[in-house]
Automatic annotation (TrEMBL):
It comes from Strombidinopsis acuminata. The keyword Iron does not apply. This is TGS domain-containing protein. Residues 161-217 form the TGS domain. Keywords: ATP-binding, Magnesium, Metal-binding, Nucleotide-binding. Its cofactor is Mg(2+).
Length: 217
């Protein structure tokens, strides 16, 4: 993990140098304030990286974040640590490396750590012969441990600040993924841009009320 993190930091430092190189003509020849402000932010990024700190672990103002989002630094992205261990170790919940990995993660910015076994999950899928979650969970329990697939997916959504919603018709139900905090017009635009442009209103109800009443009518 240290090697991977080091490589990502090195890549971001290279990107900082390229950004600064492009900004310098506007600073030296044109004395543009916007270029100076951006360089100050990139200098802060580079200083943090050279101190072995990921961009996501530094403190940023809203204005600085707008600038950072333009450049998509590798170490600005959220991280989920998936630790693949042996099938028997996963079932027994015993692996000598997990405490050390957890300690390293805590010392290096933190983040969710999910131990799982690719071998175990593969066998669950082979035996279940189904995409049904309940069937897979039943097979996994019979094999001695829970499946981690749903937790991995859920953790990925949460870490990326994504949520989903469903549309239902007579013939099919579809799931749509949006960023948490997206307003109703933007959510409609994921289906089709015309829905966002011509958005009028959204009718809101509690799911429990829908179940209790049996329909939208």
């Amino acid at each position: 993990m240290e090697i991977i993190t080091g490589e990502l930091i090195a890549k971001d430092i290279q990107q900082c140098d390229k950004i600064i190189e492009k900004l310098m003509p506007d600073i030296e020849k044109k004395n543009l304030k916007i270029a100076k402000d951006e360089k100050a932010i990139i200098d802060k990024v580079k200083a943090g990286l050279e101190a072995n700190k990921a961009v996501r672990d530094l403190e940023w103002s809203g204005k600085e974040i707008e600038t950072l989002n333009k450049h998509s630094f590798m170490t600005a992205k959220p991280v989920v640590y998936l630790v693949n261990i042996g099938k028997n170790e996963y079932i027994k919940k015993a692996n000598k490396w997990l405490p050390k990995i957890a300690a390293w993660i805590k010392e290096n910015g933190g983040g969710p750590m999910l131990p799982y076994s690719a071998e175990f999950e593969s066998e669950v899928v082979d035996q279940a012969q189904s995409t049904d979650k309940e069937v897979r969970n039943k097979i996994a329990t019979e094999m001695g441990a829970p499946s981690m697939i749903n937790r991995i997916i859920g953790c990925g959504y949460k870490t990326l600040r994504l949520i989903h919603y469903f549309t239902a018709g007579a013939d099919e139900v579809k799931c749509w993924t949006i960023r948490d905090g997206t307003r109703a017009p933007g959510a409609a635009g994921v289906i089709h841009t015309d829905f966002e442009k011509g958005f009028i209103c959204a009718e809101v109800m509690k799911f429990t009320d829908l179940v209790e009443q049996g329909s939208e009518q």
